[in-house]
Design brief:
6-stranded mixed beta sheet; 9 helices; 9 strands; about 50% helix; about 15% strand; rod-shaped; binds guanosine-5'-diphosphate; Septin
Amino acid sequence: KTMSGEKGKLFPDSASYVGFANLPNQVHRKSVKKGFEFTLMVVGESGLGKSTLINSLFLTDLYPERYIPGAAEKIERTVQIEASTVEIEERGVKLRLTVVDTPGYGDAMNSQDCFKTIIQYIDNQFERYLHDESGLNRRHIVDNRVHCCFYFISPFGHGLKPLDVEFMKAIHSKVNIVPVIAKADTLTLRERDRLKRRILDEIAEQGIRIYQLPDADSDEDEEFKEQTRVLKVSKRPLSVIGSNQLIEVKGKKIRGRLYPWGVVEVENPEHNDFLKLRTMLVTHMQDLQEVTQDLHYENFRSERLKKAGRAADDEVLDKDQILLEKEAEVRALTRLFNEEIRKGRTIVDELQFSIAIVIDLQSHFKKQDSIHCVF
Ligand code: GDP
């Protein structure tokens, strides 16, 4: 039986809840009043189980009618960005969750195009926020900035693919990256450990910056401190399993994957890191938002201001250039004018000379006339 519930609705089973209502007290108080706005982006090759995991994480079916493309289609596909928003309410805490999926990532041959579309999306949300922030209605800004990006790594490779490295480098200064190993059930425990170590080494070697959990504040409650401690010591990247199926195990319905040799349970910490990933996300939503605001958005804003400054400088340069050109033009005209005047002078001189000759001739002829009269 699949769990394709009504779009955006929590599953009726009240025993299974996401857990964001259990946020540490101070965060909880703030969020009860305002409600959370959180945007999670999922990136990775299609077929790695992104939508299944998202559905498992938030106990909702975001994509009940998702169509899975065939191989020929995949080659032609460009990255399409799909944003779905659900409002989840849990024990009085509201969460407006937007999941941004990039279904065709890695399918198309031209990977640069995938990058561009995703980066453009992230930048556009920053741009929108910047615009709204400088507008009049600053109180009711909808925050659609991408607060976290789950980057799905294939369990079938021997580490990161060149595309993984390139992509994470392209976005690490824009968004909090949380890498996850997909379909962990396809790996033995030893294989998982080896892959984790390898990926972490590669991330360090390549200088990729991923989201780092902060230390818990000393005034936080003990449970939260313990959760953070466990998360901090667990091996990264977290390796996860997703499933949309409920299976009955020992009289209890659990979310899992049924194999001929047994059941892999999504929410069993011995089977995979799903619960850790969910706890990490849920308990650090506010930190993810703060890092987005203080680091990534500030980066974007200062870059934008620099660009605006450069544009203004260019404008001043343009004006100077125009002024110089005009001055040169005026100088050339003055030179021409002076020349014309000089030419004019010569003409006047010549004219005066000619007039003098004419007068001379006239008086000469007059004299001749008078001689003639005498005869
Ligand atoms: P997406 O394209 O990345 O969103 O992938 P989907 O969520 O549509 O999953 C693709 C296929 O992988 C489906 O047949 C899922 O049932 C299967 N799948 C999802 N998660 C897992 C997992 O954790 N392990 C295994 N073995 N298969 C999975």
